[in-house]
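Weekend entry, working from home. Most of the wet-lab plans are on hold until the incubator is repaired, so I used the time to fold the two sequences that have been sitting in the queue since the last round of cloning. Logging both here for the record. First:
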Amino acid sequence: MAEKTANLPQRYLRTQEAARFLGLSERTLEKHRTYGTGPIYRKLGGRVVYSVEDLHSWADRGLVTSTSDPRGGSVLPAKRQPLSATAGGRVPR
């Protein structure tokens, strides 16, 4: 079977298709791209595209065997805490 697929061009998915493929929202996939925690992507003509193989590979990195597996948590980094107020009670911008 590998011989038949070796002659086919690699399939690329746009963000909407890739998100649907992974069962995520487009916004979640965009956040992963921003944080560098998502699947490898390419920019072709200014468009972000993902190969199906890279999506499978990234999804496989999330494989866990039990809920006690430390990797079972979120793959997104923790949200940043707001800056503490200054002495004047204002938050710097």
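Second, folded right after the first finished:
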Amino acid sequence: MNPFNFNPEDIVEEIEVFGRKFSEGMSTLAQMETPEVGVSKKTCVYEEDKLQLFRYAPRTETQAKTPLLIVYALVNRPYMADLQKDRSLIQGLLDSGLDIYLIDWGYPDDSDQELSLDDYINRYLNNCVEHICLEHNLEKINLLGICQGGVFSLCYSALHQNKVANLITTVTPVDFHTQNDRLSNLVRHIDIDLCIDAFGNLPGSFLNSVFLSLKPYRLLGQKYVDLVDIIDNEEKAKTFMRMEKWIFDSPDQAGETFREFISQFYQNNGLIKGAIKIGDWVVDLQNIKIPVLNIFARDDHLVPTKSSKALADCIGSDDYSELELAGGHIGIYVRSNKTNPLPKAIKKWVEERN
């Protein structure tokens, strides 16, 4: 008697099918060129140290008067927002008639160990905003922050509200101590001083291993098993390889900035307490009086929806909106352009306030 109701012949057949698909798929991969990422045309318009500020070429005859600056996180590369021509948040925004800028923070090295949050927010980010304002003869621009870049955008807006017209945060943590925050529950128990003193800059590979460990079955095993079912389709295989490239393209983190971010935000939960200190200034989200659109992902395993929704009780704006989208932390950005509601939602909200 077989207590598990397994048919040995079915198992053998399944293994043979898997092996055949794998063999055919490897042949496809061997002939495939390295997939292109960051597909939209852009020009570097400002540089400072490792930072580059890009402006994207328009895709419509006319563009909105007020530019939109995308502020990405430090922990991964920003081409995730422009992954490929049919899966690109940036192209969706450009097709909506928005004038798009983006900050590429670059790859920190040993010379950047002492960079602080003050450098990134009050110097680098502020200099980019001022460059755009000067270029367009404006006093204010729009900001769109992604994840940690959303945190930076909140801090910047609280400190420099006179330079921000409208603020959009996406998958942005605000309350770093919500109950089901797996990442927070992990890093809250790290001796961050010992970690940075030992490493100098935190290796990107180390941080990436932490992210992967949060969903080990899915991110370290199952997705490679599932790959066999699409590997013989060149376009689907290229999409998979683009995502793999992005996942493992993790810059090192400037030591002092990482120390400050983990201790002040994750360990002390200072953002909702009004206790974040950046340089000589304290961040009080109640100072944010401008319109805010807060977008979060329903199935986000890195930033729980409760963490993002906490923003509603922290800011001083009378014009606050929320939008929950189906998908995960990255999925809301890399969906097909034809079905992704994110660019249209951003365009509609911005147009109503310009």
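Plan for Monday: verify the second prediction. The chain has a mean pLDDT of 89.
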